[in-house]
Structure formats: structure tokens, C-alpha cells
Amino acid sequence: MAAAAAVACAMITAPAAKAAAPPPTGPVTGGEAPAASSVPVAQRSEVLGTGWAGSLDRAVTSNGDASGFHVLVADAKDGYAWRTAATLTETGTETDRWIGRTCVTSSGKRAVVVYAPRQLVNDEDRYHRGALAAVVDLDTGAVTKLPEPVSIAYYNPGCGSGEQAVLTQNFFRKGQYISRLFNVDTAAGRITSTVDTVGQVTSAVPTGKGVIAAKGDNLVSVGADGAVKPVAYASGGAFRLTVDASGGVGYQTQTAAETAVHRYADGVDKVVAKAPQGSVQLHGSAGRVFLQGPDAVLPSAPAGWQAAKVPADSELSTTGAFSVESALSGNPAAPGSAPQPAGVTPVRITARVLSTGAEPEFEVEPGALQPDQGRADSPAVAKTAGTGGAQPSGTGDDTTDPNRKCAIPRNDPRIQSLQETPQMAEWAADLAVKGALTVSRPAGYNGSALPAYTPQGLFPMHALRGGGLVPAQVLLGIMAQESNMWQASPHAVDGESGNFEQGGFYGRNVGVDSVNFAKADCGYGATQVTTGMTVGDGSTVYSHDQQVALTVDYAANIAAGLNILIDKWNQMKDLGVVANNADPRYVENWWFALWAYNSGWHKLNDPTDPNSHPDVYGLGWSNNMANQDLIQDRKGFLDNLTSCKKEQQDSNGNCNDAKHPGDWTYPERVIGFAKNSLVRYNWSTGQYGATFVKAAFPGGKPSLPALLTFCAPAQNGCDPAQTHVPGNFPGTVASHCLRDDLACFWHTSSTWQPSAALLGTEAVIHAPGEAEPQPGQFYRADCSTPPGSSGFLIVDDVAPGTRTRNGCGAGAVSHGSLTFSFTPDNAGNYPSKIDFHQLDTGYRGHFWFAHTWKDSLVNAKHKVTGTWTLDQAINGWARVLVYVPDHGATTPQAWYRVNGSDSTSPLRSVAEGGYLDENRQPQAGSWRSLGAFKFSGVPSVSLDNMTHANYIGDLPDGVDDVSWDAVAFQPLPGKPANQIVAMGDSYSSGEGVTPDDSWAYYRETDHDGNNKALRNACHRSRDAWSRIGKLSDNPGQSIGSRSDTFDPSLDYHMTACQGARAHNLWRGDPGEYGEPAQLDQGYLDQYTNLVTLSIGGNDARFTDILNNCVLYFPGHVGGSCADMSLDNDGKPVSQTIPALLTSNVIPDMERTIRDVMGAAPNAALLFMGYPQPVENAAPCTTLFGSNSITWFRGIAGQLHDLQSQSVTRMRDGGRNIRFADPVPAFDGKGACGTGEAIHAAVTRFSQGDAKQAVSQQSFHPNEYGSTLYAQVLERTLHDW
Fold this sequence. Notes:
By secondary structure, this protein is an alpha+beta fold. It is built from 21 helices and 52 strands. Strands 34, 35, 40, 41, 42, 43, 44 and 47 form an 8-stranded antiparallel β-sheet that branches. Helix 6 (422-432) crosses helix 8 and helix 8 crosses helix 12 (666-676).
């Protein structure tokens, strides 16, 4: 392949420039190389060393973004070509990032995965039993989601002997803290047993002799009845338990100065290595154990163990030959690499080959092998939500939820949250902490019904006990941790307004399958204001205007969140729980206030607090530094001291910290953000960068308390030097907390840094009185009128008078209304509303969207139907247009039903196109014609979010967006004289027709070339021949320009798609790239009067022949590609292809013609033939050989003759059909000819191209070729 690619590169051509005459033959030009997802073939021996092709080594890593948690795998024998084994997510969950961990079983064939939305770590209960688990087959991508929710703690999951694993869940039962262990048979994909034990058991792993875990200062075995038996003393506590192939258990212990590495087997515990504290880590994969660190040494390595001089937190492959040192999404060094809102982000992987020292880098765009399995609802979701209290959630025709628990509704066009930029958030925080956030908000701010106000007029800043101010970076750190500094949901980009993030609005579970308002979590905005934000709270905490303001206005939300933080400081001060010298100017002194901000203060005998007790009070155990759910050798959050290179670090300057926020307490995370800032994508600048200025720390890092600072017997019943006897198993040991219920609550002041000179202080860059930064707009509302729109009757998607921030003001008239119908589930709830959204862009500043689902009984509960109804009757002809916005609209099959006409085809499918271009920029929204219809009465148009199963591939549920924006009716004077549909394959779609070296393909037909599940490469071009051709009734204007301006005398549609075979047109058969079959798209009816069609080239396997010949010929120089076999059946194509033409190609072509003319019984059909694609001239002779080209031209000629004869027979049989012959026009102008009208090999890739040796644009007409084709069209119509 490498040699073939090299030869191909010698004859690359760029898309030809537009020219009236044939373009000159110029020098060859290079294209843009795709990002590498594997080690290039030619470099593999050098980079990977000898023997790579026979290696069984496998690398596995993972990374999350807003679309899901991606499990990535690469095998040495494939040059470590990265692929996405699975993407795990729960549809409808709104998060900025999915987080999780994996472990690989002994066979290397399976990974056990724990995954969760990032915000889960902020909730104590969900941290312990809110994450989800799955088994992923790394070969096939099959996903088995397990039925129990689990902990997100660092040790979950735990792989061990064979194909076994253990998962841990924690909860309280009758006053006792329960560690529940699930034994998993990964090969069977099921939980085989469940064991409950009292107390905090961590790091459980399966061995051939049972489960081994850590508890307090002991390594313990856990019996089938839950009995815990000490097997080895582990001073300070055992962590990072790892099982080797012999069933031995490796683990770490540590002192202040030293890390000890142990191996326990057959009753014997042995220290096998020691190292400076924090310099090494113990990890395992596929039955091997690795001691990792830049200076890692194993003086006497046990069998199956090895020391690896790699960063301590890197991920080694199954044999230890390959180290993944960083796997991160988003590249701060790549300006313009904007992600799709809430979408998939490419993952940058940096690695090291241990044998050669090479450091290859990769980039992979996640695309799961079996995407639906990763998105299928986890059976554990319902268990994370709790039970009881669910009430039917309102009505099926209201976009809001009248029966909600939370005070402010979603999906009310008058209540939308502005997504602030990072600069705006920092400005507001800097001013708020000074009491100067007094910017004037006019009445009706952001489209709301609010009166005029100022943020800190509405929420006056509370005073700190004893005076002083909040450091700005403490407030900003809270915002970073709580919301990613987002006021609105992840669907809204900077400067855009939409719904607030719904995290727990419908219940504290994840996913879109259930509604349980009784369990709702009513957090709002950037600071996640929760208290006082339920319907039941009424105005006891906030007035209605305050509730609305902190929802729609990020500044008001920050002002409210600041007061909550101040109240926590004051509460701690009143209780006498202060840190260090209690001066609020110092960042670290806010430790206890942050602890209380997150998990609260537990009072004695508080009936409103399920964690209240009669004998203890204070701050809870979950945020205690001594909690053994947290990794013991951790550094400060975002201060990871591993040795990965700067270019391998993530956006916060470390290797992998931000991927595992659950490894730190809430105060550690907030102070970590204060020290390092949050880095995220800035839609205004098009760059990744820091969101705020970092706090100043004199020592270069925060002064953090030691792990056992809050563990003292006299203060909170915590003592690592003692053991505790749980009530159910006398004689066993417990954790540092000496209580079965883990109620080791802290209620005492502490000084861990006596020198104020070493404490951090704020750094403020915005001064009181400074003007509010403006957000700019990445996506914009469309305030224009449709082309040729005089007399258009537009039905908007919201009521007249609705105002939005990005809208177009008053004055527009809506000639009708859009109403919705939401399908309930069996309980009468409306989960369909969970995945329903609004944004203040699109046409005139508002549209709705939802994700698509396959039309099935099980998915009925997700169905949303919107119906636009005109406010007047139309008795005659009118064109129907729908507005497709520039984002929130990505489905390849939006099914519109036009009601009230006599068309034999009222259901029309639209491929929406809200994708970014190759420069990561949006295209403008557009009006799309559904066609001209003869109406009688009041017309309406309906659209739902269901897709149909007739497509190639498997469109995943809950990924593509479908939008409801405006609809327009264009009254026409009568039936359009020309009603045309262009159908067929790439020669009709305009593949290769890309003028001026830019992509002229419609965006919806050219995207996601690296993602098989989402890819569309139909490559319909604006300059396809059916568009640039002219009709006799208007010879001065092309068909395309007339169509684009909605000429009343023309109705034109194109369904042609690159790669189409005959069956891709047939009703009920698969279409391509998620689109319906071309006949099913609905544009043919009894009024169609012209169809253009080309088909048969792909059925004749011409593309396969050319692509394989490129690979075949270099090894058979002097021979002919006619001798090669396409199917490894030993039969040369010189035999199989001629037979295929007569047995399949022509019969399928004739069936297609009959089906098309049956759907359009009054249409003439122009069948366009194929030219000779390749000339027998250099440099094509170098690529294929002269003998190959001679044979191929003969086959192309044979197809031409058979198609021409077939059309003639059908014409003679009475059908209104003609054969349009392009061969004379293209004579001598094929690839490598004089004045090429057809591309030779092209290696500049479009967005939708699959990244292979050459682009699919190769050997297709260029713009000059499209012009020749258009001339053939015009001559054929003229001579009809």
C-alpha cells in the first residue's frame, strides 16, 4: 500500500479551477495530509522495532467529552492504528464531560469500564452509587451494560485473575455504611454474585482464591458472606491493588517520605521495591503488573512484573511495550479546532515505544464500532434515581413541565440562559467580590419579563463575619468545578442563549428514559444555585424575579452564588470552625467553607438531613482528606508532577488529573482551579485558553493539609493507628473512621499553615466600573428574508412578540403557529421533553431541536412532533419551504409531512446540514424547498424526531439533531412548468466538482469522514451538471440559480449520492450515509415532469477496480489489472466483470428506471451515460499500466453500449426516456488526457472523505467536466 500511495502521490491533482475553456495541464499539487491515527506503514519497523507485525501487544486508553466516554484501542500488528471500541453515554444527560476508568482483563480481549457525567463527583450519594458500568469487547465493540450503579472512586473497576472483575458500590443501610462488591464474569457479561460488608472496603480485586481488598491498615480477604479477614498488615493503608497472572496481589503503602511496593501471595506478604514517596505507581493490564515511574526499579521482579521507566500515571499496553502518556480531547495549540456544541472532540494521543524510545503522536476522532450499544440505556439508571414519588409530568402539548419540582421551567422561550464567555464570567466574579457588580439590566433582559435591575441590587453582597472579602479565584474555582463556567446547557455556545443545564431537573438519575420529579436536583447556572429553587420553596428564599434573574443572567447567578459562599464562611465562623489564621483574604483559609458549600454541615438530630445523627455533628466524611476512597499519593488537583512533556500535557498543564476529578475532595478541586485556572474552548476567540487569571501562591503551589489532618480520635472518631470492630463481624478491621456509619464528622478548627506569608491570594484584573465584556457571536440569528420572498407566508416557531437576545426585534408577522405533541411513557410521564431544547439563534432568533431516535415501539416515549399550521387557506399551488438553522440540525433524514395537498408523495425527507466546515466555521442557515404542492384548504406541515431503519450503517439513537424552526408557504401562480428531480450516483451528485480549490458540496453531504456512524459523503455539489445546465424557457439562467431564488416556474431537487448502486434508489432498500433510499425521499410525484438519472458504475464495481488496481499494479508491472481478483475467489476481473454487466448491472438499471417512472408517471427520464474516465497516457500509465487502461476502457465502453441499448429498447417500448451520451464530449479529456475534464488521483480530502490513499473525488469529473455534462444535458433536451 505504501508503494501504491507513493505512486499515486506522483500524479495528484487539485480540483480544477473554473474555466470557459479546457483548463491547462499544470504542475501537480499536494493536498492536506489527514491527521495520523496510526504509525505510518513505511515507518513501523523504525518506530516500533522488529517483530511488530507478529506482536500480540494491545494498547487501551480512554477519554471523555460531552458526547460520551470513549474507549480507544490499538494493536501493535496494525501499527497501533487507533479505533474506538465503544463510546459509553446515556442519551439526554447534559454534561461538559464524561469521566471514567477502565481495566483490561487477562486475555486482553475485554475492558471493564466505569463511566459517569463529570458533575457526579459533586454529589456525595451519586459519587458512591451513581456511576455506571459496562463490559466492552475490544475486538468487536460489543457493549454489555451492567444492571447496578457503582462508585466513581479511583479503584473502580478492579480486574484480576482470568476474565473476572469486581465493582464496588457504597451506601448507608440502617445506620451502617455498606460496601457492596459485585463479582463480574466479563466473558458472560453478567454479575455472578453480590457481597455486602460493613465499613469502608476499597480497591477490591478478584483472585483465584477469592476477593482481596484494602480496609484501614490491612489487606483483607472478603468472604462470600461478607466476612472480612486480615491477611497482611499494610501500614498507612493499602492502595492500587493489582493482580498478576499467578494470582499474587501487588499494592502500595506509603509514609511521608517513602512508597513501598508489596506483593502478597499464598499468605506471604513481601516488599519488592521502595522509592521516594510519590515517584512511582503500580498498575496492571491483562495479568501483568508494572511499576511505573521515571526512575522505577524492581531489584527482584516477581514473575509477570516489570519496571517501566515511563511517567508514573501513563497507561502501559498489555505486554508493556507501548506507553500511552496522554490521551486528551481538544488541542490548545490548534486555533480554530472548534468542537461541535456538546459533540465529539478529536482525541490527541501521545505515546512512547519502550524498545526504541520513539514517541509517536496520534489523533483519532471517536467513532464507535457499535454506537447504539454504547448509547443504549443502562439498566442501572433507574436504580441511581431512587424510587417513589414520581408524578405525571404535565401535558403532552406544553413545551414546559407544569408538574416540575424545580422553580423555573425549561423550554419557555421567555426564559433562556445566556452562555457567558470566560472573560464575562471573570469580569462578573472580579466585580462581585468587591460588591461592584452593578451593571444595569434593562427591563426584559435576555427576552425575559423581568423589570430593570442590577445583579447586586437584586442580590446585595452579604458581609463576612469579621470583615474582609472573598478571593475572586475561590468563587471562580467553584464555578469551574460546578458548571465548567457555563450558565446555560452545553448545547449553547458562548454568546448564545438556551435552556439552563438540566443535570438533575427530571430526577437525579442520568439518561432520558424516566422522569422522577420527586428526586430532582434543582441546580441553576454557573454557581449551581440549588437552595430556594424548588416550586415548594416559593418565595421563602428568593422572589420569583430573583429566581428568573439567576437563571437567565450569569451575573445575577454569580451574585447569588457568592452570597451562598459567604453564608457558608459565616456559618463556619459562628461555629468556630476556621482554617489557619481565619483571614478570608487567603485562598486556603476557605477550606471549611468550601467543604460546607459542597456537602453541608450536619447538625444534631436534624430531621431534614438523612445523614444527621444524635451523637455527632460537623462536616461529612466524603470530603475528608483521610477518606480512603481518594488515592493516597495524590498531589494537588491539577498539580500532577508526572514527567510527560509539555506538549503532551492537557489544557491545565498536567497529564491526566482533570480526567479523574473524583480522586480529590471538593476543596482540593476548587483550590486546584484557583491555582491553575480552567482551560476550555472560547467560541469568541476560537482558541483553547485559561478562563481566568490564576491566584498568587508564594510557594508556587497551595498550602494543602496533609492527608490525616482531619483524622483525630478526640475530634471526629478517626484514627489510622487503631482498628475498629464492625458490629456484624467481630474480630475484623475497619478503615480510618472508627464508626460503622462513617459519621466521622469534623467540627474543629485546624491550622496546617501557620505562616500567612505562604498562603495564596487573589489576582483581580477587572476593576469596579469596568464595562461588561461583550460575547460576540459564533452562531447568529438569520434576520434576512428568503430569496425572492415577496408574498411568502412565514410561520415562525414562537408566538409573535417573543424576544430573544440574539433575535431580530419586533415587526415580523407569523402567519400561523407551531404546536407540539409529546408522547408519554406508560406511566403518563413525558421523557420526550428531557431531550428537547431551545436556542436563541436560527431564523429570527429562536428554534427548537431534539435528538433523533429510530421509529420503534420502545422509542415511542422519545417522540416529539411539531406541526406548523398556516392561518389561512390556500386553494391552488404553493411551494413549501423549511428553515434549517446553522446548528442543531444534523440528521440525514428529517421527515416532513405536508398536509392538505393532492400530492401522491406528501412525506419528504431533508438531510439537514448544521455542520462546521474544514476551517471549523458554520455555514449560514438556509431555506430548503420541500416542493410545490396543489393545496385545498388550510395547509400544515408536521415533523417528528423519528428516523427509519432503511439506511446503510446504523444511525445511533440520540446523536443527530433535528430542528423545528420556521416554515414558509410561497403561493405560486400555477403549477411550475419544470418539476425536476436529479437522481443517481456520484456522476450525478457532482463528486469532484469543487471550483476554486474550495469545497462546493452541500455541508450535509460532506462531513465526518473519520466517523463511520455519522459520516455523509454523498457529495452533492452546487455545481453539479443538473444545476449548471439551462432550460429552454430561460436560457440565460442556470437551473441551480433559478432553484436557489425559488423561481415560480421551477421546482428542482437532487437526491443523487456518491457511491449509489441501483438498489440504493429502490423503495424500502437501504439508502446511503443514513439517508433514505432515493425513491423513499419523496420528491417524485404525479406532477414531476423530468427526472435525470445516472446509475450502474458502482454496480459494475468500477470504483473497486480502480482502487484495487492502484494497489495491484506495482507488484505486477508489465501485466494488467484485468488479471486481479476482487473477491479472493481466484477469478480474474476480466471474466467476472463482463458477466456481472449482463447478469446484474443492466437488469438492476432497468428495474430502477421502471420504479422511478412508476413514482413519476408523467415524467420524462433522461438517462445520463458515463464517459471514458481514464486516457491511456502518462502519468496514468505509470499508475495502472497501459494494458490495464486498455482493458478498463474496453469494459467502460461495454457498459456504455449495454446501457444505451437498454434505454433504446425501453424507449421503443413506449417509455418517455432518452439516453444522453457524454462520450463524444469527453473524447480525449479523461484523467491524464489533454485538458482533463476528469480528475486523476486526488489526495486533498474533503470533510466527508474517508482518509485513505486517495480521495473519492479521484476519477470523477472536475468543474470543466461538469460543464461538458451540462452541455450534453442541454443538447439531449433540445433534441427530445
